[in-house]
Amino acid sequence: MMRERCLVNRIAATCCLLVSAFWLTPAASAEDGYDLWLRHAPLTGESGQALRDLAPVITSVSGQSNGPGAKLAYAELQRSLASLGAGEANAGEATRASIVLQCGHSNGADREAFRIVPEQRGLRIVSPGQAGCLYGAFALLREISQGKPLMSVALDEHPAMPLRMLNHWDDPDGHVERGYAGRSIFDWWHLPELLDQRMIDYARANASIGINAVVVNNVNASPLFLTDRYLPKLKRLADAWRPYGIRLFVSARFSAPRDIGGLDTADPLDPHVRNWWKARADSIYAEIPDFGGFLVKANSEGQPGPQDYGRTHADGANMLAAALGGRGTVIWRAFVYSAEDETDRAKQAYAEFEPLDGKFAPNVILQIKNGPLDFQPREPFHPLFGAMPGTRKMLEVQATKEYLGFASHLAILGPMWTEALQADTGAGGNVADSVASGGMAGVANIGSDRNWTGSIFDQANWYAFGRLAWDPALGSEEIAREWAVQTFSVDPQFLSIVVPMMLESRQAVVDYMTPMGLAHLMGTDHHYGPAPWVCDLERPEWNPCYYHRADKSGIGFDRTATGSNALSQYAPAIAKAWIDPHAMDEDYLLWFHHVAWDFETQSGRTLWHELVSRYDRGVAAAEKLREEWNSLEQFVDPERFAAERALLAIQVKEAIWWRDASIAYWQSINGLDLPAGARPPAHDLAYYKALSFPEAPGQ
Ligand code: BDP
């Protein structure tokens, strides 16, 4: 019987090998991108042979093997090592390597740490907790996928910050605000009864890169998420994600006590309001004992908040913090600007929050966007990171590319986030240091599209977010390479082209959209395409002309002492680097200065000629991305190759549109000729102004 089964198994295995040899050669089989960076395609060449020779046996140390992380780590290693090619083909029992999982039951801060320790014939994954074991398993697989010999993997890691969190801007009806990858992945309508397999695959993907927290709904929050009806739905998700080390958070609408609680106020100092939130929190914790807490957008862009009752942000946040108690965390957003405030919008968050330093409860974290404005292709870091030493802080970045070409454009954001994380705040460290006790939040780019993110390369932004939140010191190149190897191919020729493409892509977008520190020139509401001419909207800061301030004499926003003096919100040593328009990094020139069109830039060109040359550089870079991708056909399966080829054609078309429309508009303001040899815009300004896209996604 045993022998028969062996024979059947062997025939099946041989068939499998033949089938995989035929079908799984990277360039031959069509793939739809669903497997993300977790494809674990069979390793070829020497590393494949080595893995087959070792045919590792996985064991969990007895007594500790029953925890959820250990079980998942075990299953993950079984499944993925087999997929990478480790089988029993070449190894006799005596020569097989061993992978030992030693997972503890710590609930402390160290539960996510892990070590991979080489042993005589194999290795041991050790963690004080369950989540750490799973992270260790994924780290090992990542190393092996890069072609690293199993026996030489040695790691000792712990996360750089406690919260590594995705913020979904998803509404109960499945619409995703600023989502470019289809509808929401959360099927609130059918929950709790129906738990889509996607919810598990999503958790697995997050765990593989260390993401440990998910806010499931839009910051422009519906109070529905706080109703009793939604509790079982939330519970079902939280239960499904718990083994993956993920805690569920909810965006809370500040006016909920009025909206759904039957009270006539949401004043945070009103005892009835305080009791209402406390009772809500108790009900949630009764169902979800490890509920993460609330994310709140208050008194910003029309959202309700404590200021509606003459209270401060600290009053509001602390009231919710008291309701959660030691059980959870309030993430309070610093993205505020007021309809009544005439000062520079880029100054307002600092002005409102800095005086509140030290006034927030210990379980409140202030979530601050990377730049002082709003997820633009390039902004200087937010000055709040260099302030408020008595407040826990969190960095918020946007993976969904609202301002960088939606999911159509190839724009790898790792370099942009690293620019922020590594920025010296002038307060004794960099931005990453300033969020070490808080965390990093990424506005998710994930939707119901089969490939999750609307394009294959947008998966790299989800990936980079997780990796950087785990370790902000990781280099962009390392992250891009890791992702490209796991997603496409380990072939050095392929990587020598695709990794530089990824690294250069974001600067290309900056150049053709908003060069030299320009910002917020996108179309009204949907933010699709150029509209620098818009100047007639009710509030000044709704208009692109507010940000570029172009007139006959020059262009740019004076944020020095002669202007809004936003520069003074930075530490003196940092401000000093931006104060002299002739000596500073010109990537931020027009962010901080209003300069004449004939201002001499560091290239020796006038500002006007330099701007045109940057637009041209951006278009050329987009064309280069397209050509380089087209040269990679032999390395990529036909389905993913064709999809990206189509998107890159859109990117080139839209890069030219951005350049031409912007130049046509600037010329209408400055009356200047183009530099010699520069191509005139394809159409006149009226043509670009007349374009309209009421159906643009994500609004
Ligand atoms: C802006 C988006 C808007 C968001 C807002 C926010 O356009 O949809 O609600 O950010 O972060 O960039 O709250």
Give an overview of the whole structure:
The protein is α/β, with parallel strands linked by helices and 699 residues long. The protein contains 21 helices and 15 strands. The chain folds into three domains: 34-157, Chitobiase/beta-hexosaminidase domain 2-like (Chitobiase, domain 2, 2-Layer Sandwich), CATH 3.30.379.10; 163-487, Glycosidases (TIM Barrel), CATH 3.20.20.80; 512-690, Alpha-d-glucuronidase, C-terminal Domain (Alpha-Beta Complex). The relative contact order is 0.09. The radius of gyration is 26 Å and the shape is globular. Helix 13 crosses helix 14. The chain has an eight-stranded parallel β-barrel. A five-stranded mixed β-sheet has the order 1-2-4-3-5. Beta-D-glucopyranuronic acid binds next to loops.
Our measurement of the CA-to-CA distance between the termini, rounded to an integer number of angstroms, reads 63 Å
Bound molecules: beta-D-glucopyranuronic acid
Number of helices: 21
Low-confidence runs = 1-28
On the 0 to 100 scale, the average pLDDT is: 94
Describe the strand arrangement of the main beta sheet, using strand numbers. Answer: 6-7-8-9-10-11-12-13
How many beta strands in the DSSP annotation? 15
Can you tell me the number of structural domains?
A: 3
| CATH architecture level-2 label of the largest domain | Alpha-Beta Barrel
